Amino acid sequence: MSVQESGEMYLEAIYVLSRQGAVRAIDVGEYLGYSKPSVSRAMGILKSGGYISVAKDGYIELTEAGLEIAMDIYEKHTIITKFLVGLGVDRKTAAEDACRIEHHISDVSFQALKRHIESI
Asked: Is the whole-model pTM more than 0.85?
């Protein structure tokens, strides 16, 4: 099962938030600026897809499959942001643009960009 762009956004948000502590659906909604019903629906889809698990107390954890996708998207986001900032784009705009690009860039192009960033 492949994850659509919105699913990737949720997984990345859960990953980022989990680095700071335990994550609940309300935290994800606040982080992304999404409504409670939207987050609840997305969590159900991600859970049924095997990307997250939700404990009885409501805390969300990424499964191995979810973590792999989340880390991939997060890496793309950080490297693309860094690249754009290096080109002179302000950090806020660079992060917003990276958020759009990270879901559509091919693996071939991303790996080339990553190698370029690491070489400078």
From this structure: yes
Burial class (CB in 10 A: 0-12, 13-18, 19+), 57: exposed
Q: How far apart are CA 100 and CA 21, in angstroms?
A: 26
The two most distant CA atoms of the chain are separated, in Å, by 47
Q: Would you list the DSSP string of 77-117?
A: HHHHHHHHHHTT--HHHHHHHHHHHTTT--HHHHHHHHHHH
CATH of domain 5-68: 1.10.10.10
Return the residue matching tokens 């302000």: 90
1, pLDDT greater than 60: no
The domain defined by 74-119 folds into Diphtheria Toxin Repressor; domain 2 (1.10.60)
